[in-house]
Amino acid sequence: MGKGPGLYTEIGKKARDLLYKDYQSDQKFTITTYSETGVVITSSGTKKGQLFLADVNTQLKNKNITTDVKVDTNSNLSTTISLDEPAPGLKTIFSFKLPDQRSGKVEVQYLHEYAGISSSIGLTANPVVNFSGVIGTNVLALGTDVSFDTKTGNFTKCNAGLSFSDADLIASLTLNDKGESLNASYYHIVNAVTSTAVGAEVTHNFSTNENTFTLGTQHALDPLTTLKARVNNMGKASALIQHQWRPKSFLTISGEVDTKSIDKTAKIGLALALKP
């Protein structure tokens, strides 16, 4: 566990990563190259049915400044500039996307031993202001995440969360969508040597009175190969196997089956990440 409660986005993150990260129903190919000057170039392509989407991301690090520039097949140019530690615990992020002139945003993050704060504001005449804060320790933390639209004068987001962490388990409870849904998640390390872990997530929607439940697990077959599986109450079962065949190079094969479907339709995804 790290020092301090961290940011609001870290509440329930371990369980989310276990249940959803790396699962792929489409064919995806990623190549990352590193230069001696510190430039990182990542090219990726994803095939969704008959549609092929591609993008190129270039990352440049110079001391405590990181610049990311991304171009995709829709001629969108995204730029993110991060200034890390201009003061102890402080991080500043500036981002914008062209041709969308209203996408400019400045974010400031601050990490303390007993608090984690993140605040952002859009660079427009009537910006959306976001604030999230967490207080506590690396064991128990309480936080909130709100967004306010200055144009309409309304809160567009209002969430709250509680997290408890121990040596081998993390439990969280969040109230989302302005109190419309309640989410509880659990992550437990069964065996640290084999990276064996289990996780669960339960969401209740108060307006529809519906519940969704997802259960997942992971296990390292060997130091380079990881197996993951999950199932939810809607009858969808997914599994993946990820193998690191060279340093920072991964081959991931995942599949999903709808067990409640009459024809038992299966979706198979392939993700190949090469980082020489």
TrEMBL record:
It is found in: Membrane. One of its GO terms (biological process) is response to bacterium. The keyword Ion transport applies. Keywords: Ion transport, Membrane, Porin, Transmembrane, Transmembrane beta strand, Transport. CDD domains: Porin3_VDAC. InterPro entries: Porin_dom_sf, Porin_Euk, Porin_Euk/Tom40. GO terms for cellular component: mitochondrial outer membrane; pore complex. One of its GO terms (molecular function) is porin activity. Belongs to the eukaryotic mitochondrial porin (TC 1.B.8.1) family. This is Mitochondrial outer membrane protein porin of 34 kDa. It comes from Trapa incisa. The lineage of its organism: Eukaryota, Viridiplantae, Streptophyta, Embryophyta, Tracheophyta.
